[in-house]
Design brief:
The protein is mainly α. It folds into 2 domains: 139 residues, Tetratricopeptide repeat domain (Serine Threonine Protein Phosphatase 5, Tetratricopeptide repeat, Alpha Horseshoe), CATH 1.25.40; 85 residues, Alpha Horseshoe (Serine Threonine Protein Phosphatase 5, Tetratricopeptide repeat), CATH 1.25.40. Helix content is 68%, strand content 0%. The protein contains 10 helices and no strands. Helix 6 runs antiparallel to helix 7, helix 7 runs antiparallel to helix 8 and helix 8 runs antiparallel to helix 9. The chain is elongated, with a radius of gyration of 20 Å.
């Protein structure tokens, strides 16, 4: 959508076009997710996903194959974000949106690059740190996720989901005391958080406290069944 005539546009016109491109890209992104069959298939990277932190969040069709996302829509959305960012390269919102689209397409390295660029532009932005932590979690880079998730829970101590994912990361780097504390905090905020209860059971098992672990597993099952 960018051509040689763009250089003659006024800043206001360029801002209007960028806003239109951004809205078009968001609509295309939503269409791509709907085409994939489930809004949970590719949750945005700029928000912490809720619910099952241990599952892969992917569903399969009747033949056992993973559903293909709406590729034309996804590529068009990405192109629209590219065009908008060409006009506003320092836009945190656009970098987050493009990172979300890249994450939905499984292009985590590119999503990480956008988020790290956004973090350089605005180091105190908790939304960016949240998104970066999620990218690291999806890639299994647990140690890299920990400092970002710590910053998130410092700023959003009310979020059980943030505490849960911090617990997940700490468990994977063998900080068992820290993981147990994070899972417990998530369950204190949200007593119905079955995954936080289950996470406590996992850590208690690793700490060789089988009776306490069994109790947590039981509570997790009870909550999940409600």
């Amino acid at each position: 959508m960018i051509n040689n005539q763009r250089q003659h546009e006024t800043p206001r016109e360029r801002a209007r076009v960028a806003a239109e491109l951004q809205e078009e890209a968001r609509q295309l992104t939503e269409n791509a997710r709907l085409t994939a069959g489930s809004p949970e298939t590719t949750p945005p990277v700029h928000t912490l996903p809720h619910g099952n932190g241990n599952g892969n969040g992917k569903q399969k069709n009747g033949n056992g194959a993973k559903p293909e996302p709406g590729r034309p829509e996804a590529e068009r959305a990405l192109a629209a974000f590219d065009a908008a960012l060409a006009d506003q390269p320092a836009s945190i919102a656009l970098l987050l949106d493009r990172a979300s689209q890249l994450g939905a397409m499984g292009r985590y390295a590119a999503a990480r690059a956008d988020l790290e660029q956004a973090l350089v532009l605005e180091p105190a932005n908790i939304t960016v740190r949240t998104a970066l932590g999620i990218v690291f979690l999806r890639k299994g880079l647990w140690a890299e996720a920990v400092p970002h998730l710590r910053r998130v829970v410092e700023a959003e101590s009310w979020s059980p989901t943030a505490w849960f994912y911090l617990g997940e990361a700490l468990n994977h780097v063998d900080d068992l005391d820290g993981a147990l504390a994070a899972y417990r905090r998530a369950a204190e905020i949200d007593p119905q958080h079955a995954k936080a209860l289950y996470g406590q059971g996992v850590v208690l098992d690793r700490l060789r406290r089988p009776e306490d672990a069994t109790c947590m597993y039981r509570r997790s099952r009870e909550v999940a069944a409600r």
